[in-house]
Amino acid sequence: MEKRGRFLTRNHRLAIFPEKNRRGQIYLVSAIILAVIMMSVIVVSNYSKKDEYLDLNSLRDELRIESGKILDYGINNQLSQLAMNQLLQDFAQKYIDTESRDKNLYFVFGTQSNITLKGYQNTAHTVSLDSTEVTSSSGAFLGTITPSGNSATLNIDENSYIFTLKNGENFFFVISRETGGKEYVITG
């Protein structure tokens, strides 16, 4: 004699759903599958959103470490002022080549007697160093000044960034990114 329980079928296999109302089972399984698909899309979209400021902070940390190593290399190898300037221009160009696709990059470096500004702008801004206009168009730019005191002021439109010049070699940067109507800026 066959026992017919609530979850046993005619051939004694365990069934997930009773035999009655198979159409309802299809709707239930479809709803579960649809819910799983929707949840996975939501999870993936939330995961793929990057915090722009955190990305710039990691770039600032990287630049601080790398620029310190570059300066140490030039000082330890007793590079001339011209050779050190070229080394720092090459270093800045490396970052311009890799990071300029969605950022404005401004690098200020040199000594108290000669400061160089090298950078790249995605959008046109008026850029000056100690009141000497360097560029007002987008793209790469390079300018050199002789500072009048122990500081250099980088002006980008109406924003001013003052850098105190120390004896020996100096390296500073300003990086900005505009995303969603907000501008994120880091300095170092």
Structural class: alpha+beta
Q: Biggest sheet: strands side by side, in what order?
A: 5-2-1-8-9
Using the alpha-carbon principal axes, give the shape: elongated
The tally of beta strands, per DSSP, is 9
Arithmetic mean of pLDDT = 80
Radius of gyration: 30 Å
How helical, in percent, are the residues? 25-40%
Tell me the distance between the termini. Answer: 85 Å
Question: What is the H/E order?
Answer: HHHEEEEEEEEE
Largest pleated sheet = 5 strands, antiparallel
Unreliably modeled segments: none
Percent in strands = 25-35%
Explain how this protein is built.
The protein is of the alpha+beta class. It folds into two domains: 1-49, no CATH class; 52-187, no CATH class. It has helices at residues 22-48, 52-76, 81-99; strands spanning 104-111, 114-121, 127-129, 132-135, 139-145, 151-156, 159-164, 170-179, 182-187. The strands form two sheets. A five-stranded antiparallel β-sheet has the order 5-2-1-8-9, covered by helices on one side. The chain has a four-stranded antiparallel β-sheet with strand order 4-3-6-7, with no helix packed on it. Helix 2 packs antiparallel against helix 3.
Key descriptive features of the protein:
five-stranded antiparallel β-sheet, 2 domains, alpha+beta, 38% helix, four-stranded antiparallel β-sheet, 188 residues, elongated
